[in-house]
Amino acid sequence: MADCIFCMLANGQIPTATIYEDEDFRVILDANPATRGHALILPKAHFANVFEMPEDLTAKAAVLAKKMAAHMSEQLQCDGFNIVQNNGEAAGQTVFHYHVHLIPRYKDGPRIVANWPQSPLTDEAKEELVRELKV
Ligand code: AMP
Ligand code: ZN
After folding, report:
1. What is the pTM of this model?
2. What is the pLDDT of residue 99?
3. Which of 38, 97, 99, 101 is catalytic?
4. Of all atoms in ligand 1, which is nearest to the CA of residue 29?
């Protein structure tokens, strides 16, 4: 898609710090890393978010995320790993070309991602949500 920076990065029209590439994806280092090694999986084709991605490509992205996380964990000797994928502005997405964050985590590193405020699920909310969401 014209004017999409991630299309240009994924397809090599702008130089990137690439750590993996195949026919469908490029994995690059994030320009503003949350931790050492923070990388992004970018599909070469443009999809704004996971809802636009075809299922076969979504499945390939999940398998690639697992493989990259294993490889990066080994190389970086990190202590944990977040695989994060934001959809929509309200969810923190700022670049509207599907991407998966690969975020190595370190014991003494910053507390990021899974530190959102939580409150207990009430019985009433639980019943209502199960009614609403059960497939
Ligand atoms: P999100 O908030 O999930 O949309 O993530 C967008 C990510 O893209 C952020 O972590 C940015 O630091 C990163 N980013 C934006 N522009 C570039 C770029 N030119 N090269 C590499 N990473 C980028
Ligand atoms: Zn794009």
Report:
1. 0.93
2. 98
3. 99
4. 21
